[in-house]
């Protein structure tokens, strides 16, 4: 006696799609997730900002006013170790152009991804939340692109 189970094609395809999604998620977590970085090591991220032509000065003015004090508070409470910013001296091609690179050395990967308590800190730093939110919206309206690049050190002496 043979038992044969027949499933509709839609059910099979749906199951395969769910399985593929789970496998992709697991793969992403292993290669990009928090398990890839030791909990006790600093975690470095470079944040790139590309402003509309002619608006880079306004962007950095708003960044210094509304975001940098928040980042300094992150250093003060021990979540971040260092915050630095750079801008290129010369311009490059439009597709590779960026106006500012902000490098943050976080205490560890978990802290870098944990925004618990951020809203309270922002309310303390900026009691006029209406102005703060309007200016932050403007800061991001100025941007053409923004991307984050987690960085790892490469030991050139190790074989």
Mean pLDDT: 84
Low-confidence stretches: 11-35
Give the helix tally: 6
Largest β-sheet summary: 4 strands, antiparallel
Could you state the order of secondary-structure elements as H and E? HEHHEEHHHE
CATH C-level name of the largest domain = Alpha Beta
Q: What amount of the residues lies in strands?
A: 15-25%
Strand numbers in spatial order across the main sheet = 2-3-1-4
Shape descriptor reads flat
Radius of gyration: 22 Å
> How many domains would you count in the coordinates?
2
Q: Considering DSSP H and I runs of 4 or more, what fraction of the residues is helical?
A: 40-55%
* N-to-C CA distance: 61 Å
Tally the beta strands: 4
> What is the CATH architecture annotation of the largest domain?
2-Layer Sandwich
What would you call the structural class?
A: alpha+beta
CATH names the topology of the largest domain as: Alpha-Beta Plaits
Written account of the structure:
The protein has 159 residues and is an alpha+beta fold. It folds into two domains: 8-37; 38-151, Alpha-Beta Plaits (2-Layer Sandwich). It contains six helices and four strands. It has a four-stranded antiparallel beta sheet. Helix 2 (56-66) packs antiparallel against helix 6 (129-141). The protein is flat.
């Amino acid at each position: 006696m043979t038992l044969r189970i027949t499933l509709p094609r839609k059910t099979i395809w749906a199951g395969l799609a769910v399985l593929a999604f789970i496998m992709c998620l697991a793969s992403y977590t292993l290669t990009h997730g928090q398990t890839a970085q030791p909990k006790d090591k600093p975690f470095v991220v470079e944040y790139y900002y590309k402003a509309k032509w002619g608006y880079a000065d306004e962007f950095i003015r708003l960044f210094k006013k509304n975001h940098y004090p928040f980042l300094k508070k992150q250093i003060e409470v021990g979540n971040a170790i260092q915050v630095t910013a750079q801008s290129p001296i010369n311009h490059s091609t439009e597709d590779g152009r960026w106006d500012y690179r902000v490098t943050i050395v976080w205490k560890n990967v978990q802290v870098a991804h944990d925004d618990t308590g951020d809203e309270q800190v922002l309310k303390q730093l900026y009691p006029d939340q209406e102005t703060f939110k309007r200016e932050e919206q403007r800061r991001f309206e100025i941007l053409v692109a923004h991307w984050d690049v987690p960085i790892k050190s490469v030991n050139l002496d190790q074989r």
